[in-house]
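Archive record
______________

***
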Amino acid sequence: MPDDRSNISPFHQWLGTNSILSGQDLVHLDSYLTNQLSTLTALDAEIDSLTQKRRELSESIDAHKRLRSPIRRLPKELLLEIFIFCLPGRHQPILDESEAPLLLTRICKSWRILAMGAPALWSSLHLAIPRGSEPFVQFQLDRCSRWATCAKRRPMTLSIWAGPPTKPSDFHPVVSVALKKIALKARTLALTMPIEVLSWICLPTQPSEWDVLERVTVNDIAIRRNLSDEFPSQMVLDLPLWRAPRLGEVNWRAIEANFLSLPLNFAGIEKISVWADSFEPSAAEARAILQACPNLRSLQLSLSEMDTQPVQEFVGRSTKLTPCPIPGSPLLMSHLTTLDIMDTYLKPSFKPTVFLRDLQLPALSTLKYSLGTLDEAANVEDPDEETLLAPIPQLEDHPFVLFIRAQRHEILLQRWMVTVGTLPHAGFMECLSLLPHLQLLEVNTGVTEKDPLESIILDDEFLKALSPRPQEIPEGSTGTDSAPSPTGFCPKLRGLSVGKSGFTLEGLENFVAARYERSLQTQAPGSPQYSSISRLEVILDESPPDFVARDERGATCALEEMFLFDGAILNLEFRQEVQSAYPPAFNWSSEYYYPTAGLAYDNDDEWE
């Protein structure tokens, strides 16, 4: 590099030394530094100017590049479909700017206009009733009103929650007016709140105003600790929404009132779910519900341990209910596809009504069944209290086995959920042999009984019974002129879910492999075509491995091991209890709004 003499300091001979400058040299040094600092300042100014020019040029380039963005060329219809896929998948949309659809309105003006003009984005909402000062509450209610306005005339799916302890006086009067206006737009309405608050919101309406309501869920979450606390049963029965002209689905949760006293148009009801400890219908009442609902498609009930209330006692309370058929005569429910029953087995000496007796369900595809017996009620608080429950019945007297045997049509059941203590093992296997269309089998292992006379046994022998056996072809036969031999149970089974079991990993692999191999074979005439297992979920009866639980919320932590073979997904799960690291108390503030309060999440483990 050439030597640039102009850059050499006049003081270069003193640089890096301990020499002491004279007074005249110091004067020259100050003059030299002043000139150098001026040059540096000029360079900084030039750099700042160039930096600003570079920033402006870069921003201009980025702005022009955005003109080439593919999303600009998307048709609005396609962009709207993408917006719809942005909605929460496991819960209803909420008033939260960090989630769609509100998030979509904060991107740009064009997106905001498109999103706010699409009623499909605003047709569902979970709303936690706000509390606090009147301006704060009014602000939150205005947000809800604008949401409902964006839905335009589209019927909404609405969930409203008010956590305990609450009563109407806890809220400002504007709450009732605003929520009533929104609720009247709901096709599906879930109300989780004390009945007093529910009545305060809904009573100032007429049945005709609920002209779009088709599905309603009412869940009372009031805390009534004393037996002397009066429950406003008549208040809930007087709600005008029960007389909605299009109401077809009722979900009754934790309501301390007689469901049978509701002024429903039972002939138009297609789905009923009654799950309240304070009201459990007897078998006679349950059959009366079936008789009154000829178009019923889904029923969920927990039956009472008593069978002492005559049907006539509640028939008169509603003109829509009629007496059930004479015992012994068939009760045909042509449209019922889903049945979820917690049944009870009462002492035969009392001649109780049996819910399943002579019940014909030709369209039944999903069944969840459990049976309460004297064995399960052994841990009651007062062991001397007389009960009508009887021990688990023998095979010839078991109500579920008799129900399956008595079906006069081909059983089309595709999904069966059963508790391990509901059936003796022989009865369970007999029922499986009569379910040729069964695709999903779920066994809840709530008890650990090992007696095959009292419970289902889940071990490798059970898997062998579900495995296809080789077809025997007589000697000299071509295989086309002889009847097929039995080849195993449930040929269309593709999913098995059980809790704690006695399966071994080898037994599971052999089971899946056998089903997979048979599914690839061409079956002989008259033999069923087997399906391979695509999903298998079990909890092995083994000690859990050592692992550190990271979930500090407590409860049960799970460690899953997944195996893939022969096209099946095999989940082996080990569980371990973890103590919560957080204090159990929750500090309620006097003024709050939590959009997710009371929000229900879908279960990822639900099978499609």
Q: What stands out?
A: The chain has a mean pLDDT of 78. The chain is about 25% helix and 15% strand. The longest strand covers residues 555-565. The two ends are 77 Å apart (CA to CA).
